[in-house]
Amino acid sequence: MSEATGCPEAAPPAAAGSSRLRLPLTGPEVSFHHFFPDGPMPVPAREILRDLLPAKAVKRCPPVTSGSSFGWLLFPPTSFAVRWVRDGLEFALMDDDGRFGSWEVLDSGRPGRHPGTEAALAGVPEHRREELREAIGDEGVPLVDPNPADPREFQIITGVTVRTAPGWASLVRPIPNLPVPPETHDVVDGLVETAWYGNGLPVMVRLRVRDQVVRFAQSTPVAAIQPVPVAAFATENARATSGVPGVGSWGDDEWERFVTTRRQRQDALPGSYRRAMHAYHREAPADQD
Question: Cβ distance 252 to 260 under 8 Å?
Fold first, then answer.
């Protein structure tokens, strides 16, 4: 299967009796590496949070600020542009001033290539070079890999590898709470089990409009990476373990929790959620921290 389908090809290592429910769960222990020596490394989302959200939201709304600052922002490895024309995808590299190089038509087996493959190879120890060339092929590392089944879709091959602790995966998704212009693109959510998957992390993109040039600058984040427990999306956990419809059938504990927090919402000044959150973590028993 082509990388452009959005699904990594490698199979996970076999493990006798393995189950996602039995994976250990500690902190995600995330580490990043980049294939290209000048490639932009992921940046913690909270570092540029204030550039994305209104100041009032940053100060007073923990659910929004936490959702926006959770994880890291991922950048294209170099600047380029694409456009969906007729039934195909065109690609051009872009310089720092926004000028385009030559446009080329991409199709199955002919992705847009990153121009820095040779520079990356130059920094590899001699004893590893032949093995690396076998791994990436003679034509170098793709930058834009089109989906042969849909000309609107392609992968950005970021050059970033992610390693997480056992039991954790990486959710690649649109940058939370950052709208994009309607004539540009969508980033398609994808989960990669980065505890074992060591290839470059892909970003799947779907263009919205034909004949519209869409730019991807190396200095502008294109997606977010958020660590999530594998057990959170395991098939074994797909259904809720309990719950009933209708407020009249709620148990005492659920009723009290709802009424208490609803009263706080109704009666308190702005910022009540933040204060209640801090109070909960101060007062919660150790096994609930």
Answer: no
Contact 179, 111 (CB under 8 A): no
- The rounded percent of the chain whose pLDDT value lies above 70 is 81
Whether the CB-CB separation of 1 and 148 falls below 8 Å is answered with: no
Record: fold of 25-236: Deoxyuridine 5'-Triphosphate Nucleotidohydrolase; Chain A (2.70.40)
Tell me: the pLDDT tens digits for 20-40? 555 556 788 999 999 999 999
28: alpha, beta or left? (left if phi > 0; alpha if psi -120 to 50): alpha
Provide the pLDDT confidence category of residue 54 given band limits of 50, 70 and 90. low
The answer to whether 204 and 190 are in contact (CB under 8 A) is yes
DSSP state of 107: B
The closest of 165, 155, 40, 38 to 91, measured between CA atoms, is 155
The whole-number pLDDT of residue 20 equals: 54
Q: Which residues are bridge partners to 33 per DSSP?
A: 161
Please tell me the distance from the alpha carbon of residue 106 to that of residue 69, in angstroms, as a whole number.
35
Whether the pLDDT of residue 282 is over 80: the answer is no
Chain centroid offset of residue 149 CA:
23
